[in-house]
Specification:
By secondary structure, this protein is mainly alpha-helical. 65% of the residues lie in helices and 5% in strands.
Length: 335
């Protein structure tokens, strides 16, 4: 499973844990007060109030709550809970709940331009906070122990399973990343890069690390074979391969290869914001001088079909002698 999927899975698990916690600690008649709470604090609860109006109070339920909303109710409206959330009973729970809400806020601000390593870290740091949260709930007094035990053991197992899966996937990713960087390094420093590529291909075709990457990562064809390798590696999610490929390139012929690579990425049905940003960065950094020879706008047209609009701009800069210049650059339009 991809790390993006693990981030989403962690988000869903976080929300479900909080919702099921609320099902245990909210008063049975919480709905009697909730509409008034929303009306009096419309600035903070506008979206939830809309849901109530849309679904009707009878159909509105705890599964409509998100984490930040639950955290707010927990902090500021103790009257709707079976025990006051300001009491010592909930002291540890509140502290752990705050960490869970902080994690949720951190994920909500993700642009998905982050590296896979950063995304794995987000998940890896979130899961122990969820574990602490359910432990604090398990230790509650004066709450239905049978419900809490069912709650705790169910989610403890799910958190453990997800933690183990993420640990193994991150480890496998790190091994792949290390291997790919070493292959690209060897190709870059070799006086005969294609020969070095062929050597790596022959030595590693049956290697477990290579087989784990992708069936298409070592492609033998009439095309530039290093290009095929880098494109397959990039598609696997290793964006650094693009920068390494650029440092292997030399001259106009190879910039045409880079154009072909970027066009291939832009044509993908699942073009991500991260890949779109990488295309623009690569064009600005490495293809600006070739704009008359290379049809950059074909790439932009493909990006536009996927919903990514590009605009051009002019930036001024000084060279090492202090002389002013202007350079055309491209930027993604903000939605």
């Amino acid at each position: 499973m991809s790390v993006d999927d693990r981030v989403e899975e962690t988000q869903k698990l976080r929300t479900k844990i909080c919702q099921d916690f609320f099902k245990i600690v909210l008063k049975q008649d919480w709905k009697d007060n909730i509409t008034q709470i929303y009306k009096e604090n419309l600035k903070h609860y506008k979206e939830q109030y809309k849901i109530v109006k849309l679904k009707g109070l009878n159909s509105y339920n705890i599964n409509d709550f998100d984490v930040s909303h639950m955290w707010s109710l927990f902090c500021y409206h103790p009257e709707i809970f079976i025990e006051s959330t300001n009491s010592d009973v909930f002291a540890d729970v509140k502290e752990c709940f705050k960490s869970v809400d902080d994690d949720r806020n951190g994920v909500s601000h993700l642009s998905y331009n982050e590296s896979k390593t950063e995304l794995y870290e987000k998940v890896r740091f979130s899961l122990p906070n969820l574990k602490k949260f359910i432990i604090s709930i398990k230790n509650l007094d004066n709450i239905d122990k049978s419900k809490i035990e069912v709650f705790y053991y169910a989610y403890n197992e799910k958190i453990n399973e997800l933690s183990e899966a993420v640990k193994n996937e991150e480890s496998a990713y790190n091994i792949r990343e290390k291997k790919i960087k070493e292959y690209l390094r060897q190709i870059k420093i070799s006086p005969n890069q294609l020969e070095k590529y062929d050597e790596i291909y022959c030595d590693n075709y049956a290697n477990t690390h290579i087989k784990n990457l992708s069936k298409n990562q070592f492609i033998k064809s009439d095309e530039n074979e290093i290009y095929c390798f880098v494109k397959a590696v990039y598609d696997e999610g290793f964006s650094f391969a693009l920068d390494d490929y650029i440092s292997i390139l030399n001259g106009y012929r190879y910039f045409k290869e880079l154009e072909k690579l970027l066009l291939g990425i832009a044509t993908k049905d699942d073009l991500s914001l991260k890949s779109a940003d990488q295309i623009i960065k690569t064009i600005n950094d490495h293809l600006a001088m070739w704009q008359d020879e290379i049809d950059i706008f074909v790439i932009f047209d493909k990006m536009k079909e996927k919903g990514y609009h590009v605009r051009s701009d002019v930036e001024s800069y000084k060279d090492k002698y202090g002389k002013n210049h202007q350079m055309r650059i491209f930027k993604l339009e903000e939605n």
